[in-house]
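Re-run with default settings, no changes from the original entry. Doing this only to confirm the output is reproducible before filing.
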Amino acid sequence: MTSHLIDPSGIWSQADTEAHLSRCPLPVAFLWPDSRGVQRAVLPSNRLSKGYGFWLRTTPYFPELFEEIHQIIAMTPSDVVMTPEWLAAKLHARRPQGEQQKLF
């Protein structure tokens, strides 16, 4: 008989996060620092073939954003309704504070 402290069937995976984001992408007006530190909308520039979640997980333009989202969702109780606006508010609350330097 084996004893498990955590039931692996109940663990939220990165594939679950990817699927959730493909169903419920971040709001169009949501801004996040890109790879250069410039605040910009988290939107793909081309048509998506594998979904928004896949794009966000694999894009180099928003480093660590997918992982941040995954951490938020994985720690959220299952009875919480995770709307795009709810997720954007959670990300905003966890956003590193400070002033962005102007590039121009």
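The chain has four helices and two strands. The chain has a mean pLDDT of 85.
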